[in-house]
Amino acid sequence: MDYYSKTIDKVLEKINSSENGLTKSEAEKRLEQNGPNELPKSKEKATKLGLLLSQFKSPLMWILVIAGVISGFLREFIDMTVILITVFVNAGLGFFQEFKANRSMEKLASMVHFKALVLRDGKKQQISAEEIVVGDILLVEMGDKIQADARLIEQKELAVIEAALTGESEPQKKEAKELPAKTVLADRTNMIYRSTTVASGRAKAIVVATGKNTEIGKIASLVRDTRDDKTPLQLQLAKMAKIITVIVVSICIGIFFIGLFFNSHGEDLFHIFETAVAVAVAAIPEGLVISLTIILAIGMQFVLKRDALVRKLIAAETLGGVSVICTDKTGTITEGTMRLTRLITVKDDLDFDEISVLNKEKGRREDALIALKIGALANDGVLEIVKPEPPFASSSAKAIADKKATEGKEEWKLVGDTTDTAFIYAAQKAGIEKQAEEEVKPRIDEIPFDSKRKFMATLHSIDHESVLFVKGSSEFIFKHVNFFEEGSQAKKMSKEKLEWFKAQEKELTSQGLRVLAVAYRRFESTVKEIDKTHLDDLVLVGLVGLSDPIRPQVKETIALAKGAGIRTVMITGDHIRTAQAIAGKIGIPNSDKQIFDGERLEKITDDELEEEIKNLYVFARVDPKHKIRIVRVWQKQGEVVAMTGDGVNDAPAIKAADIGVALGSGTDVAKEISDMVLLDNDYNTIVESVEEGRTIYQNIKKVVLYLLSGSFAEAVMIVGSMIAGLPLAALPVQILWVNIIEDTFPNMALAFDKGDKENMSDPPRRKEEKIIDKEMKTMIITKSILANVALFAIFVYFYLTTQDIALTRTLVFVGFGIDALFYIFAIRSLRHPVWQTNPLGNKYLLLAVGFSWLMLIGAIYLPPLQKLLSTVSLNAWHWALMVGFGVFNLVLIEFIKWLFIHRKIRNN
Q: Whole-structure pTM over 0.70, yes or no?
């Protein structure tokens, strides 16, 4: 029902309530029938079991599970144990990280419990917000967070901040009279809505909707209908897993049949099948799964240090691919509070920093101070001094020290309309305390601010006279001034001087500032009340420009993002001209052709928007369905989109985006479905997180390159030895031991590598970009062919000259291991040669490689391992040969890197 278009009597009749509220028994009955006043819970909220099972979605995990089962079937219990440990350690790490992130979110949510003041049985009662029912009479006042949708019955100077619902940062003035049918939500001035905040005044209203039926609840329900797409990495890993599966199965079948046809040494079929399975298991890069988990988990921790909480493990990598950041203006680009940023008098033109030091100036600017005093006194805002909680009463030395530490550390808390608080804050910075001024200039009458009147006037008793202070729109005050202030003197207003003030007002407006004027008039002390005639012959003191301050370094961060190929798109509910002015200040393209508003979006199709969007950087006056359209159209262009927001109105688009980013100060709905939460609300943190995401992706590529470069060496050697009619080049247990050396600690240690400093000078990778690029393919193929040819030559030479298969297999075994322990240092950076990287930059890698060397050497010289692995001791010249083989692999990788580095230099 459109309650805003009905009279109060009809609303009360429809809801079956009265202005005295419901009876306690009726309220309990309705609560039982309709349920608690709670917003729909996001489907994204997972149980512990759901989180654990979600870790097994990766196809690579299923390949490992199957390999483990096959190993167990063949009674290779050591192999089965290693594989299954890999699977469950990976699942455990992923579960732990995501569970910890969700717990952090739950703690944030549990910190706030809301209450509401209602009339029950004609008496005021404070109840839990969940107990509110339709028909309750809700009482709200300044500072309250509204807990249900309600139709106003009566109000006193009520203004509500509805940014969480409409995106509009300015408080909305409210009135109780009925409105025309089909009035849009943002203009329903006789309604108050859940999750909005009372900026000033008080009101009495009847609850017309609770829980999922509120406007906020309806938008929250949209989230359930928004599909959650797979990330680029998930798609690439799924594709790579399919390819690896085909290769592994082919290897198994190939080795088995080659063994059948080329079995000149009498190997039994079971041993050949066992070897085929061992080679296949070695070819599966099981280290990749656990390494990816560790890389993402470590990345989450690094991002957290930058004040962003990544809620989903896989999202940590997706950050690195972001190419478009769709950011809300209020609270992200700006600080989310109004501030007096310009003050113009006849003699002065001050910015906020200059206003802040007025109290320190010797020759104080009197006209500017008068303007600030007027703004602070014609004002209903309140400045509260908040002191830290005192320690528990105790005579202990620590308690006394704690008490002393908290002394003098009071903080300011501004309560009221954001325009009023902006004046109070500026005055306080200039050394003018509102409370002290009111003590010597007591208020004796007032005309409260009204959206129609567009001004506020207060009458004060000052030194045996009455003085009227007026703060309001410049349009109103220009019509009522006959004088202006200059050097603390009132002078007659000329036509030229008035035109000068109007020109200043126009200049401030063009900057996207909200412009107000301040004026005064003196009377005899006998004047105790304000009437309309008193508003004429005002003395104009100055003009003030108010704005939501832009966060520090945002402009530089947007420029950094641009240099990294990332487009910043500002999406806001503000007026198009305000959005345009803000965009100009922070370096976002802002010509008329580069800005769209909600009205124009309604008139064009998605196909038309797809053509237009390439040139668009600012969207103003948009609603939730527009935001989803914008995100989807960008995604159709192949872009990886991050969408930021704080309100429930942002939630559907946050979920639709590749990376949904909720503000830490935002609504629970936005946080629950987000991929990342900005704990400091700062746009700069998004770009820093993107930089960390690029490092994560870079480390993932290193691990893939490292593992795949060595994964198929064993297959080549086994197949080669079979076709050549020679004994198997390596035994199954040797292959799996080498697999442990390569696929455990060294590749995991790559997760701790710091990203190249050039990461933010590269363009974002495209969605369709393959994780194994041309350079990596060249390295893997070239290195695999040449290195395996060299190692096969060593195998053939030593077997033919010594006929000692144990020694020959030991050399091949060492070759498999030593190869990986050398070239891992070459792939730490694909931009720089190994001698230009810091060898001590990753201490975990040094420890991991050192441990792997111990495992390799122990397998050669420790008798129990010699027996298990069928190895023999090697002499110095054997080691010299195999170390030379390792150096050959390192040089080979470096040469391929050099070719690509120089090709990039030529192209640039």
A: no
